Amino acid sequence: MQTPETVRELVIGGVAYETRFTRKFEERAQYVAPDPHLIRCVIPGVILSIAVRKGSRVRSGDPLLVLEAMKMQNEVRSPCDGTVRALPVAPRDTVTKGQILIELD
User: Fold this and answer.
1) Residue 103 and residue 37 in contact, taking contact as beta carbons nearer than 8 Å
2) Burial readout 24-55 (b: 16 or more C-beta within 10 A, e: otherwise)
């Protein structure tokens, strides 16, 4: 069974195009840009070590923690300058995708 489509006008760079959108496309969740002050887990794993403490000042690119996932050690680095506001994880914690690892101010 095909999804019903609606014909819409889409304007890109000032040029109008006629296109078809499926109902699934129309009902999709809107994109929300990630907050660079919330460091989230991108793959499930285990926290091996943490290089910062609450209140630590960090610069963009500084190492924050090491996450082991699929037998690989992944160093998580700071995406921006800031101060560690919250550190809701500890070494040996199992973390899931999307979980907040560190909050920066």
Assistant:
1) yes
2) eeeeeeeeeeeeeeebebeeebebeebebeee
User: Closest Cα partner for 104 from 77, 10, 87?
Assistant: 87
Q: Hey, where are the domains in the chain?
A: 38-104
38-104 maps to which CATH number? 2.40.50.100
CB 73 within 8 A of CB 51: no
Q: What's the chain's average pLDDT?
A: 92
pLDDT digit string, tens, across residues 7-21:
888 899 999 998 888
Q: How far apart are CA 80 and CA 104, in angstroms?
A: 9
pLDDT reading at 60 higher than 60: yes
Structure tokens at 83: 């101060």
